[in-house]
Structures are given as structure tokens and as C-alpha cells.
UniProtKB/TrEMBL annotation:
It catalyses: DNA(n) + a 2'-deoxyribonucleoside 5'-triphosphate = DNA(n+1) + diphosphate. PANTHER family: DNA POLYMERASE III SUBUNIT DELTA, REPLICATION FACTOR C / DNA POLYMERASE III GAMMA-TAU SUBUNIT. GO terms for cellular component: DNA polymerase III complex. Keywords: DNA-directed DNA polymerase, Nucleotidyltransferase, Transferase. It holds the Pfam family DNA_pol3_delta2. The lineage of its organism: Bacteria, Pseudomonadati, Pseudomonadota, Gammaproteobacteria, Cellvibrionales. This is DNA-directed DNA polymerase. Its EC number is 2.7.7.7. It comes from Porticoccus litoralis. The keyword Nucleotidyltransferase applies.
Amino acid sequence: MTDNAITPSLMHYPWQKAQWQMLDDLAERERLPHALLLAGPEFVGKQQFATALSARLICDFPLAGFACGNCKQCLLFKAGSHPDFLRVEPEDSGKAIRIDPVRELGQFLGKTAMQGGRKVVVINPAEAMNQSAANALLKNLEEPARDTYILLVSHELSRLPATVRSRCRKVTFPLPSHDESSRWLAQVTAKSEGLAELMEYAADRPLLALRFLESDLLQQRQAFEQLLDKVSSGAIKPLSAAEQCVNTPSVMAVDWLYNRVSMAIKSGQLGSEQVMSFRFLDKLVQVKKRLFSTANPNINLLWEELMLDWQHLSR
Ligand SMILES: [Zn+2]
């Protein structure tokens, strides 16, 4: 049966079975909406789901609800060269999706399918579209061409214009349960030691935990947490700490700081500074937006400001 085994990259994760069955069933009955909004926290596998669903829609001979992995369409898809599949992403991660790629998407959807079947576009993450890109997309959402599907992947729905949201069928991807994530992680890594700490750092997001394992991100995060401790205790000056942050991935480190402040609020560590702590959380959300939307943010200045705030809050 190995010849008929489904290619793992064309499958969903174990915790996405319900969403898959629902959409597969709609596709089977030719009732799949033209625009789907796959929404949920980052690192729960929405992107993989979108890829697997695209392949499923493009495949000539789906097998048990999945792309077969062996037909001409699947081979082209797996090689990354299927002419009727388009992925729209920011040029650099964390940057905006501008209008040009969305215009190209419109042209792509307007043409007849090269392979005669369906055409699929994945936009990931959809909230990275700037205002003019989102406006350009509206026309495609309003007047969908036959046999075309637009899959929008979104980690932060609130950053997506309501006009775009309202024209898509939303499918939500909640965080899998702690047990389910842990089980999966133990399985794919063939490890059990240290997984609990890893899952805690990854806030129970299974793919983030995996990424921590595969890269030096875990070390980076530990170093960052220690840096925060040192700033609190006065062992290091905020401005020196800021210098050390410059080489840490900023968007992620802002999340780490957000997490740290939320935990401190919950545990009552910042008791007398409640209002300021919440203001700081708001500020971190704004900082993250700025990091997404500004071409060349001044990272050094940014961290100087955040570290001074953190010192003020936590000492
Ligand atoms: Zn196939």
C-alpha cells in the first residue's frame, strides 16, 4: 500500500480533522465557498492546512479526501511549479504585502486555468496586506471567477479590514489542547525530556515548540528572559540591554515581552503598577503593528524605549 500512502505534506495536522472534514465535504459536493478565511493563533498549522487543501482542490484523483500525491497535478504541485496555484506572501517575513502581488493575483484568477481544473490562491498572512492591497483584493472577493478559490490565512483577524472579512467564510483553528500538542510533539521529535518547558515557552503552540527545537530560538528566548531579569534587578542598564536585543528577531521578542508582562500581571507581581502594565501591553501591540508596517524601523531606539519601560515597571 506504500504507493498509495498520502504524502505527509499534503495532509492536515491531527487536531484539524473537523475543519478538514467540513471543507472536504463541501468540496465533494461542489459547495465550497470561493473565499475561505482560515483564522486562529500563529503556529497551529493553518498554513500547512491551506497548502494541503490547495493540493486537494487541484488534484485530479483525490484519495480518501486528500490529494493523491501521484497524479500529474500533484507532481507539479509538489515541485512548486503548478501553474494554477499561487502563493502571495510578504517579500520579507514581518513586512507588508503590497498592491502589486495582489494585482497579479487578479490577473492570475482572470485567466483560464492552464491545466483545465481549479485555480487556487493562498494569501499568508492576510493581515499583512496594506490598505491598497486589501482594497485591490475586494474585487476578486466580490466577483469570484468560476472554479477559483482564495484561501486567506490569518493569525490576527482584528488587523484584517472588515470589508475583507465579511466576504469570506471564516473557518477557525483554535489552539489544540495541551495534551494533544504534547503528544504530537513527543511523536515527531521522538523525545519526551524537556518537552514540558518547551511547550510552556511556546505558549502551547505546537509548531512554535518544534521551531524552538530545530533552531537556536529556545536559547535566544532564554537569553532574552535572563536579560529581562537583569534589567529588573538592576544588574544591567536598560540601554545596554537594548543593544543586546538588536540581533534578536524583533517581532518575536516583542511577543515574549508581552507574554512576560501578562504573566507578571496575572501572578500579581506588578501589583501597584496595574494600570501602567496594561498601558504597556497596549504599547507592545502598537509596536508590533509598527514593526509590520514600517519598512526600516529603528530597532535600537525601539528596544531602548521598551527596556526603559520594562525597568520602570518591574524593578
Ligand atoms: Zn493527485
